[in-house]
């Protein structure tokens, strides 16, 4: 599953406060650096047609007026840094292009997608937390991008991750419940999802969200897998959930339509283009495939 596979990078968090170590790692000739800007990176195809993250040695990296995030080391001891800048550098060669996580997450290796998702999540957090949430003073970056410190009240702020649940609901006939959000393009259906609220377990959040959005009561809930989803700062927690009744009442605010699909109905709807699948990189697509039993059909 994209963005969830083990990727062999040790985040080496114990080095983040060690300025001497970071300086040595940065200037090491084998260190690799890439720029992240507005959630995008540069990607390129190599001679074998494999899409890769465009990285440079640090001595070629455009450090001026950028923030440096240390992302970790690989099993060969190579260090990886991301530079957060206001814009991406000009393409290094003509075939390189800018890509966001929805596209690059599908194309890059698990290792490079993992580095990218770490950098994008840090960038989103940094952009939205420039001021101290305790006293309002402007904060500064520390710990190689992983802490913001307040000079006025001394508070340390850490990157936040907002848990969200996403669930494939099935009924007694093993049909799947898919819904349409109000602002989605016509025909796009996906699993229901929502944020975990304060003081709530993730299982309770699954039951509450399905009931709120589709009026369906839920019995058994089973955790499947998680996926970092920095749009801007979510962690998607994927579930399978069993409905105890099939009668749908949509809320009409977040979800404008919800329907039960048998596998045959979903195949027909997707092959004729009446139903568009969720984004390929998202855990929603994987949850639906888990129920469907194979890759989702394409329009024919
Ligand atoms: Zn403060």
From TrEMBL:
Pfam family name, one: Zn_ribbon_NUD
Gene Ontology molecular functions: hydrolase activity
Annotated ranges, domain Nudix hydrolase: 159-289
Broad enzyme group: hydrolase
Alphabetical list of InterPro entries matching this protein: NADH_PPase-like_N, NudC-like_C, NUDIX_hydrolase-like_dom_sf, NUDIX_hydrolase_CS, NUDIX_hydrolase_dom, Znr_NADH_PPase
NCBIfam families the UniProt entry points to: PRK00241.1
Protein name according to UniProt: NAD(+) diphosphatase
Database matches in PANTHER family: NAD(P)H PYROPHOSPHATASE NUDT13, MITOCHONDRIAL (PTHR11383:SF3), NUCLEOSIDE DIPHOSPHATE-LINKED MOIETY X MOTIF 13 (PTHR11383)
Keywords: Hydrolase, Magnesium, Metal-binding, NAD
E.C. number(s) listed in UniProt: 3.6.1.22
SUPFAM superfamilies assigned: Nudix
Domain of life: Bacteria
Leader peptide range in chain numbering: none
Needed co-factor(s): Mg(2+)
Protein encoded by which gene: nudC
CDD domains reported in the protein's UniProt record: NUDIX_NADH_pyrophosphatase_Nudt13
């Amino acid at each position: 599953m994209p963005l969830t596979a083990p990727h062999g990078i040790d985040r080496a968090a114990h080095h983040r406060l060690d300025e001497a170590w970071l300086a040595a790692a940065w200037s090491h000739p084998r260190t690799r650096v890439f720029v992240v800007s507005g959630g995008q990176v540069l990607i390129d195809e190599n001679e074998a047609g494999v899409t890769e993250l465009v990285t440079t040695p640090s001595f070629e990296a455009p450090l001026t007026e950028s923030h440096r995030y240390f992302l970790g080391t690989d099993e060969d001891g190579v260090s990886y840094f991301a530079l957060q800048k206001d814009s991406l550098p000009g393409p290094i060669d003509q075939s390189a292009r800018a890509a966001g996580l929805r596209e690059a997450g599908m194309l890059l290796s698990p290792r490079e997608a993992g580095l990218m998702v770490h950098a994008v999540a840090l960038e989103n957090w940094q952009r939205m937390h420039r001021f101290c949430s305790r006293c309002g003073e402007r904060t500064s970056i520390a710990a190689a991008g992983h802490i913001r410190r307040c000079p006025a009240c001394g508070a340390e702020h850490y990157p936040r991750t907002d848990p969200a649940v996403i669930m494939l609901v099935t009924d007694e006939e093993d049909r799947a419940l898919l819904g349409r959000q109000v602002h989605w393009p016509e025909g796009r259906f996906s699993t229901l999802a929502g944020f975990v609220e304060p003081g709530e377990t993730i299982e309770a959040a699954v039951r509450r969200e399905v009931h709120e959005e589709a009026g369906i009561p839920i019995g058994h809930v089973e955790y499947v897998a998680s996926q970092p989803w920095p749009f801007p700062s979510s962690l998607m927690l994927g579930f399978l959930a069993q409905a105890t009744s099939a009668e749908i009442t949509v809320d009409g605010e977040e979800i404008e339509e919800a329907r039960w699909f048998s596998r045959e109905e979903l195949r027909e709807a997707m092959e004729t283009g009446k139903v568009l699948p969720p984004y390929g990189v998202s855990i929603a697509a994987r949850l639906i495939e888990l129920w469907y039993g194979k890759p989702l059909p394409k329009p024919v």
